[in-house]
From TrEMBL:
It comes from the Bacteria. This is MBL fold metallo-hydrolase. Keywords: Hydrolase, Metal-binding, Zinc. InterPro entries: MBL_Glyoxalase_II, Metallo-B-lactamas, RibonucZ/Hydroxyglut_hydro. It comes from Paenibacillus chitinolyticus.
Amino acid sequence: MIRIETFKLGPMETNAYLLTDESGQKGVVIDPGMKPGPLLKRIKDMEIEAILLTHAHLDHIGGVQELRELKKCPVYLHDAESDWLGSPKLNGSARWPDVTDPIVVEPAEYALDEGQVLEFLGAKIKVFHTPGHSPGSVSFLFDNHLIGGDVLFRLSVGRTDLSGGDWNTLLDSIHGKLFELDDDVTVYPGHGPKTTIGYEKQNNPYI
């Protein structure tokens, strides 16, 4: 069974997630954000199999290069944002100079796509392409857990006013993919507290 730990990183309090196996010796990191010190300290003696990115906005990729160089692990990102890691304009870091220096990261080693099944930590992780907040946004499903980046939040949804964002596309991703999941699936968002699919169906005022 995969265990999930949450780290709030950087000035935007981005949720980075550490998935570990039962031994606690191996892990996968999802969205290592800016100022990743607490996360790096936690994984100091661990083998990290991969870095998975829900999307490539500055607050979700700020710690990628440091973590990648430290652990010699590959990065996975949807091809729709393959150019974003190396472009401060596309990843947004050029837009907020008061928040961070320009972020330039080497390209991802592997592409993510709809329906892809990744095998890490002795488990299968299914990939859903869930654009709207950004064109390459993805969500990761394993067991009854969904790590969804900035698509669906507790009582809110991702913003669509950034590069490549689209409101109707976001709603299609939520209704057509996420809300097709079981109500008891726990959602771990890119910011804020976790929630469930059923709770958001009943209570989210945006959808």
